[in-house]
Design brief:
alpha+beta; Beta-Lactamase; Helix Hairpins; Heat Shock Protein 90; five-stranded antiparallel sheet; histidine kinase; ATP-binding; two-component regulatory system
Length: 451
């Protein structure tokens, strides 16, 4: 379907509009030119006839009876009058009212009688007044034919111009369409791709080359940042493991005072939190690199969520939450069980963490077409509208007062895991005003088998 907002459409419309305007100006100019040129020719002819008639009269070579001869053209009118404006003789086709009306003037003028229009020339010649006229009906018919031809041809030429400009614009903009299609597939994992070049030495080719050079710089910067994140996370894991081991060894000696032991326990918690952040960063770096989990099997998602129910109850007991679970049995999916467990547990933990005391937590697993749909709702604080677009951004936290309780990587990791399995995680409006997340993952209809 043709888009009225496309550049190709606008080029065609503008070209057709400019062409139509130019044709209208040209047609009007042509009609005006033809009108005045033919009128000038008629005027010259009338003067010539008047002078010729005056010459014949002066040489006694013309009699009033000569007006009755058939040698005159039907569109030509001749009349001879006295100085008192009495008609001496006239051609039969020349109306008397026109002659009398024109005889009171000298020179050229337009006259009209009944349904006829005349161009008349009047001159005095001695004792006579000569009136010469030209019937303008044929002149008018020529102009009408010209105008009709132009009106008929104008839409055809406009349509032809629009069609040709559409084809030319389409051919000219093809490199841009190809580049747009290629750019639409370039993501974080496909920065090595480049936009196709037309091979022409024109502005579009130059623009494509500049974009490809920019993509190359972006790819280099991105790879450097990704390698740094992965390397830094990997390098930090070892010293953190050593620190955690040393803290545990010191705590096991039971030779520390209460203050020192409390400080070491706090440090141990922070080390565990840093381990969790590093683990999440390493996993995100792997997803960024396009390396999905190789350990994908077909397993029962319903059974996994059922096993996690006890963990949910333990998490929610301290907050005195009312938990409601509705799990449709035997929903099978193809995926990495450990990553799917991480996704579900992360959402469930967030629903507990950011809930209110004695609040409500509902989660449902159901079939939705060819997908398994996991819906989790809780009575947490409403999420501000300006925070919703950034909710899945890395390191973003809605409530900065809770910054110490999380890393801001959980939801982004959940989305990466879901997308790695062909699914999606979304925050959706809830009819009851609860905080509602929905996870959809393609399901399979097969017995559990390893891939």
């Amino acid at each position: 379907m043709m888009s009225t907002r496309s550049l190709r459409f606008r080029i065609s419309v503008w070209t057709a509009s400019v062409t139509t305007f130019a044709l209208i100006v040209l047609a009007a100019s042509t009609v005006i030119y033809v009108y005045f040129e033919d009128l000038e020719a008629i005027d010259e002819h009338l003067r010539g006839e008047a002078l010729e008639l005056a010459a014949d009269i002066s040489h006694d070579q013309f009699e009033p009876e000569d007006f009755q001869e058939d040698e005159f053209e039907p569109w030509l009118g001749l009349a001879l009058l006295t100085t008192e404006r009495q008609i001496i003789g006239r051609t039969p086709s020349f109306p008397s009212p026109v002659i009398r009306s024109a005889s009171g003037f000298e020179g050229l003028r337009f006259e009209k009688s009944a349904d006829q229009n005349w161009r008349v020339f009047v001159m005095s010649s001695g004792e006579h007044v000569i009136v010469v006229g030209h019937n303008l009906e044929e002149f008018r018919d020529v102009l009408l034919d010209l105008i009709t031809a132009e009106v008929v041809l104008l839409p055809f030429v406009t349509a032809l111009t629009a069609w040709i400009s559409w084809l030319v614009a389409g051919r000219s903009l093809k490199p841009i369409r190809d580049a747009t299609a290629a750019a639409a597939h370039i993501g974080a994992g496909e920065l090595s791709q480049r936009l196709p070049t037309s091979g022409n030495d024109d502005e579009i080719a130059r623009f494509t080359e500049v974009l490809n050079a920019m993509l190359e710089r972006i790819e280099k910067s991105y790879l450097q940042a990704k390698r740094f994140a992965g390397d830094a996370s990997h390098e930090l894991s070892t010293p953190l493991t050593v620190i955690k081991g040393e803290i545990e060894r010191m705590l096991e000696t039971h030779q520390l005072g209460p203050s020192a032991e409390s400080g070491l326990l706090s440090a141990q918690q922070e080390v565990d939190r840093m381990h969790q952040i590093i683990d999440q960063l390493l996993l995100l770096a792997r997803f960024d690199a396009g390396r999905s989990s190789p350990e994908k099997t077909t397993f029962d998602l319903s059974a996994m969520l059922g096993e996690m129910a006890e963990d949910v109850d333990l998490l929610s007991a301290e907050r005195e939450l009312t938990v409601t679970a509705n799990i449709e049995p035997h929903l099978m999916i193809l995926g990495d069980p450990s990553q799917i467990r991480r996704l579900l547990l992360n959402l469930l933990a967030n629903a507990v963490k950011y809930n209110r005391d004695a609040g409500r937590l509902d989660y449902t697993l159901q079939a939705s077409g060819d997908h398994a749909q996991f819906i989790i709702r809780n009575t947490g604080n409403p999420i501000p509208a300006d925070a919703m677009p950034r909710l899945f951004d890395r390191f973003f936290q809605v409530d900065q007062s809770h910054a110490s309780r999380g890393s801001g990587l959980g939801l982004s990791l959940c989305r990466e895991i879901a997308r790695d399995h062909g699914g999606e995680v979304e925050l959706v409006p809830d009819p009851e005003g609860l905080i509602r997340f929905e996870v959809t993952i393609p399901r399979v209809h097969a017995a559990p088998t390893a891939v």
